[in-house]
Amino acid sequence: MSHVDALNAQIPRLHDAGKRPLITRNCAILPFLHFMSPRHTRLHIPGPVEVSPETYAAMSAPMIGHRGKEFQTLYASMQPGLQSLLETTQPVFLSTSSAWGIMEGAIRNLSLKRVLCCCSGAFSDKWVDVARRCGREADALQFEWGQPIDPSAVQEKLATGLYDTVTLIHNETSTGVLNPVAEIAAVVRQFEEVMLVVDTVSSLSAMPTPAEAWGADVVLAGSQKALALPPGLAIFTVSPRAMERAKSVPGRGYYFDFLEFLSNHEKDMTPSTPCISTIFGLAHTVKKIEAEGIAARHARHAALNALVHEWVTANGFEFFAPEGFRSVSLTCVANNRGIDVAKLTSLLKSKHGLAIDGGYGKIKGKTFRLSNMGDETEATIRHLLACLDDVLPEVC
User: Fold this and answer.
1) Averaged in consecutive runs of 10 residues, what is the pLDDT profile of the chain (396 residues)?
2) Closest Cα to residue 328, out of 231, 163, 227, 203?
3) What's the pTM value of the predicted model, to 2 decimals?
4) Which of 78, 104, 210, 246 could connect to 87 by a Cys-Cys bridge, CB 3.0–4.6 Å?
5) Is residue 274 a part of any domain in this protein?
């Protein structure tokens, strides 16, 4: 065990003693979240999720120029791993932005007519507003929060010939619903001029996201969810036909112009200055995923999710999402028992230093969300559930 690894192993002990561990490598102070306060609140929210000390250590590598050989080598080194993760042979682009940047960029690059937004939660609903603010006509194919998108309804809408772009969220984080992307994508492929944009923000690396098998034209994700990195980096891939469409779309802007990403990718670069430290972290994560194995990573997420589901059922709660359409990276628990959700989240934080989410938007308090995504293990999830058991009697 290296000097730094040995110190990393002491973080929980130093943390419990109320100290702030300062761990150095090559004379650089590593910016652990543990430094923020004497007691770090461990994140089990749907994002950002907990970031490991090893990832922060990777991010502390000395700064390099983004137009030099070192960055080109770094960028190129990640391509095979990212392509495997997205199950694509196309380039995987990196954008210094949240995933919303690429969600907006997809509208600007692909839509010439009208956008159909498949809506069943806070984030999919928001895409309608995003499209309209980009100057596009957009309609919501609206479903109740907690319900999956029905492929037959998508087909009915596309048969009108009004639309050239469809937006869809694979894993709707606000409701814990896992939408049937393969079935919806099969419908979209029946309409040659319609592009499909899929948000895999909270599913990438937690479950299969086969971009090419789906036939999706843009598949995008963010760094702060199942990849277990800090926020601020978007990852996406674009189909050849979508690139061809972009050439004919005016007003693409610059920062999210897909053609700029492709042109710079060919030089192993990004169009503008990237968040180099986070990309060092991504390179570390890609290697870690390769070592674990993508299938094994998916299986780990499924097993941890099953533990949470067992707790939900054992404690008399219900699921907000219907059976067969439930997320593997987080669980949206229906508050059918009428507990004080705000008090639950407060007690978990004050007594155990754990953060969960008390429900999002219009279902705040009516649900609460438990995340198992990222680097979580059976031990960390069992600890979360034991702490929930401890405070639950106080909120019923």
Assistant:
1) 39 36 37 53 97 97 97 98 98 97 98 97 95 97 98 98 98 98 98 98 98 98 98 98 97 96 98 98 98 98 98 98 98 98 98 97 97 98 98 96
2) 203
3) 0.90
4) 210
5) yes
